[in-house]
Design a protein that fits this description.
The complex is a heterodimer of chains A (about 150) and B (about 110). By secondary structure, chain A is of the alpha+beta class. Chain A is about 70% helix and about 15% strand. In chain A, strand 1 (about 65-70) and strand 2 (about 75-80) form a beta hairpin. Chain B has 2 helices and 2 strands, in the order αββα.
Amino acid sequence: MSEAKEVKEVTGKKMEELQDELRSILGEIEYLREQIATVDAMISDLRAVDSTLTYIKEKGEGRSIYIPLGSGIAIRGKIENVNDLIMDVGAGIVIGANIDEVKEEIERRIDKLMNLRLTLLRSVEEDSRKVNKLLEEIRKLGGRKE
Amino acid sequence: MIDSYKFLELKERLKILRDTLSRYEIKLAEIENARGVLERTDGKVYRVIGDLIFEVDRDEARDYLEKSELAFKSQVEKLKEEIEKVSSELRKMENEIAGKMAGMNAGV
């Protein structure tokens, strides 16, 4: 094999490797962005529950409300005690708590999710830097190939 | 000859094992979180069984969490061993493929 052909082959192989790596990192960025969107949706849900609890705390006692049963169907009921709540804490355990305890727990969950969001964002930034570096290498290699 | 069907099957198996491992690790984190909430609150405690919610005492809840944790930890260990086994088999096959490709290129 001539030297020129050999160099071309090695360059081509290196280019393929870089492109594979690029595809893999781009896939990872997409996955991380999906995770961030999921975390955002969870934070938004928690904030919605928190504002409902604030309203119930201020104006809920003794009020009649419609309690959802699912599929858009609700039954009329009355809030007897605004401080008699239960919250699912995962792993099949539910804890009885008052409004303030539940709100504290919500804040704790939001904090954890915000930290997770930050970690995910940092990973996206790091991956983006890797992508830029790889693109630069591919550009250089492309020039050499020509 | 490299069995490409086996190679793809192993890759798929590895993906399933990793997904299961990640699900179990989430379960373990959930247990840890539930334990934390259980210890820092003093309200009533309930267990969800099916769609029903039963009141239980704290010791029963702690015991249940501990048993669940042990069960998941043992599953996680088994999964990690299995993942290592499948990964090493895949690495072996990948090396074999790379060797054959290099041989083919040299022959050109």
